[in-house]
Structures are given as structure tokens and as C-alpha cells.
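Consider the record:
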Amino acid sequence: MTAFASLDDVHADYELLEPDDRYRLLIDLGRALEPMPDALKTDATLVRGCSASVWVYPTVRDDGRLHFLADSNAAITKGIIALVLLAVQDRTPEQILAADIDTALAPFELGKQLSSNRTQGIPNMIELIRQTAERLRG
């Protein structure tokens, strides 16, 4: 997905940056997402409650791990979903359900960095991923 292997790697860079550069880092994370085909951007994959359109589509690997494709029509929102995906990408449904994604994202202090319009959809992104993991759990 990105040059960053984990949320910790991203945070190591993020915490050293000024606010404008943090914003650019998030945008760069979004740009590094693997492309999501337009055909997958449907009402069924749309995350509700986001100020921008966000789509999340799960695929199941042969080993049962979930791999998500995601996109947004807003660069910063695409970066936010990329950050969320770093917490869950290529994990089993059980691992995703056991993960405390909110706590994993807390060090980024997105609520202080971004407007409430930009962050209001994060719980909905997380909830959609959790619902997907629940649905696809063996």
C-alpha cells in the first residue's frame, strides 16, 4: 500500500512534522493506496456519514486475511482511510475485531490536526470495516 509498514512508522514521521507537512503526509498516504476500480465504487461500498465520498471494498485472501481497497473523492479523506487501513490491512477478521483502531489512531490527534468535517466520518469508516470483518469471520 505505502512505503510505511505500520502506523508506528507513519507516526514516527508524522510527529516530527509541522501541521502543513502533516496534512501533506496524509495526502501522500492516500496517493499511495492501490487503485480501486470505479466498478467497485457503489452504494454498497460507500461509507455513510463522511463529508466526502469514501468507498471501502474488502477482498478475502486465500489464507482468510482481509485486504481492503479504498478510495475517496477528496485527497485528505483518502489519506485518512489509508491511515485507518494501516491498522487492519491483511489481518484476519478475528484480528480486526480484536483491534482497538481508535486507540491505534489516537497518537495522530486527527481531531486537532483536521477540521471536524474531515474527521466526522472516521468512526463510520472503522464501523464499516468492523462490520465487514464480522460478516466475513469464519
Remarks:
- The chain has one domain: 7-136.
- The domain at 7-136 is CATH 3.90.1010.10 (Sufe protein. Chain: A).
- The first helix runs from residue 7 to 14.
- The CA atoms of residues 13 and 138 lie 36 Å apart.
